[in-house]
């Protein structure tokens, strides 16, 4: 089951990269905020349909959960806006690796300190090595962008 979950996460990451590239182009055409609005509007519609047809009844409603848990919805807005802007300027690969570096760094802080009611998982040298390797990957991907000849 763990392997399946990892594969699904990789597929989810692949779709985020495709979304970033598509939204970057859409942002060029219609503007950053209109692109973000379309992303959230279509996403809300699809999610509403999924809830209607597939979501089993829950004992707790959205209004019954601790209110801080509802703040997670706001985290998507900066991500989409930043990606639309960043992809236009630095490309999909650099923007995506930079986002993953940010995700990895914050997730390790959340794990280490047990923030947001998560189980604490201590920081280790292998986790530090992962962040360093990803930082090096970001540097090389960004450097290869800068070294390519400008297109007309």
TrEMBL record:
InterPro entries according to UniProt: YdcZ
Keywords on record: Membrane, Signal, Transmembrane, Transmembrane helix
Source organism of the structure: Enterobacter wuhouensis
Signal keyword on record: yes
Signal peptide location: 1-20
Residues spanning the membrane: 36-54, 75-101, 121-142
Pfam families xref list: DMT_YdcZ
Keyword Membrane found: yes
Name under which the protein is recorded: DMT family transporter
Highest taxon of the lineage: Bacteria
């Amino acid at each position: 089951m763990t392997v399946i979950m990892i594969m699904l996460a990789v597929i989810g990451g692949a779709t985020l990269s495709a979304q970033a590239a598509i939204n970057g182009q859409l942002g060029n055409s219609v503007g950053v905020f209109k692109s973000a609005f379309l992303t959230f509007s279509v996403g809300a519609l699809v999610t509403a349909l999924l809830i209607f047809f597939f979501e089993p009844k829950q004992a707790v409603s959205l209004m019954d959960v601790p209110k801080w848990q509802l703040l997670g919805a706001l985290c998507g807005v900066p991500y989409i806006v930043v990606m639309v802007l960043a992809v236009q300027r630095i490309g999909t690969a650099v923007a995506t690796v930079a986002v993953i570096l940010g995700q990895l760094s914050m997730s390790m802080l959340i794990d280490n300190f047990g923030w947001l009611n998560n189980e604490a998982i201590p920081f280790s040298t292998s986790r530090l090595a992962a962040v360093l390797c990803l930082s090096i990957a970001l540097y090389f991907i960004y450097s290869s962008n800068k070294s390519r000849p400008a297109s007309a």
